[in-house]
Write a structure and sequence with these properties.
With 112 residues, the chain is α+β, with helices and mostly antiparallel strands. It has one domain (15-97): Winged helix-like DNA-binding domain superfamily/Winged helix DNA-binding domain (Arc Repressor Mutant, subunit A, Orthogonal Bundle), CATH 1.10.10.10. 40% of the residues lie in helices and 14% in strands. It is built from 4 helices and 3 strands, in the order H-H-E-H-H-E-E. The protein has helices at residues 15-26, 30-39, 46-55, 62-74, and strands at residues 43-45, 78-84, 92-97. The protein has a 3-stranded antiparallel sheet. Strand 2 and strand 3 form a beta hairpin. It is elongated and about 50 Å long.
C-alpha cells in the first residue's frame, strides 16, 4: 500500500508522478472500487451509495463513506454532478465519474 511514509515523492518529482501517486492512494481500498463500479455511467446520490455498500456487506459509517468519497474526489476520479434539495437540511450530493480510464505512459515523450 501507498501511505505518506512509503510513497513520499522524490525531490523535484515530475507532476506525472504526483498524479499517479494520488490515483494509487485513492484506489487502494476495495470500498472505493465498489463506489466507482456502482456510480458507473450515471450518477448516484450519497444516500444511494451508502445503502448500496451496506447491502454489499460493507461495515461502514456515514463519516467513513464521506472520507472515501472525498479521497476519490481529491484524486479527480469522481465529482459532484448536482445537488438534490431534500427540504430543510443540507442538499444531498449526486456523484458521477470524472474519469473512466487511467493511462500510464512509463516513457517520457519528447517535449513532455
Amino acid at each position: 500500500m501507498c501511505d505518506d511514509t512509503r510513497c513520499k515523492p522524490p525531490e523535484n518529482a515530475p507532476p506525472k508522478w504526483l498524479k499517479l501517486r494520488n490515483f494509487v492512494k485513492a484506489l487502494r481500498f476495495s470500498t472505493r472500487w465498489e463506489i466507482i463500479k456502482y456510480i458507473g455511467e450515471g450518477g448516484k446520490s450519497t444516500k444511494e451509495i451508502y445503502d448500496y455498500l451496506l447491502k454489499k456487506g460493507e461495515n461502514l459509517t456515514k463519516s467513513g463513506l464521506y472520507y472515501h468519497l472525498s479521497e476519490l474526489k481529491n484524486a479527480g476520479i469522481i465529482e459532484v454532478a448536482k445537488y438534490i434539495e431534500n427540504g430543510g437540511g443540507a442538499p444531498e450530493k449526486v456523484w458521477k465519474l470524472r474519469i473512466k480510464r487511467i493511462v500510464i505512459n512509463l516513457i517520457e515523450e519528447e517535449g513532455n
